[in-house]
Amino acid sequence: MKNNEFKHISDLWKKAEKNGGSHKVYSEKDINEFKMKKSIDFSKALQKSILFDIAFKGLLIIAVVTLFSLFQSNVTMIIALIIVTGISGLFMYYENLVRKQFIDLDDYSRDLQTVLKEKVNFYNQSFPKVKWMVAFTNAFFVWIGSLFYYFSKYGYYRIESLADVIVSAIMILLAFGISYVALTFQYKYYIKELKECLFNLDDEQTAVMVIANQQRRKILFTIGAILAVLVGLALLIFLIVS
Amino acid sequence: MDSPDLTFEKLIFDNQQLIHNVCNIYGKTEADKQDLFQEITIQLWKSYSSFEHKSKFSTWLYRVALNTAITQKRRENRQPHTNPLSDQEMRIPDNDGTDTDEDELLALQLAIRQLKPTDRAIIFLYLEERSYREIADIIGITPKNVGVKIVRIKARLLTLLQSSHEK
Question: Would A214 disulfide with which of A124, A127, B51, B73, CB 3.0-4.6 Å?
Answer without folding.
Answer: A124
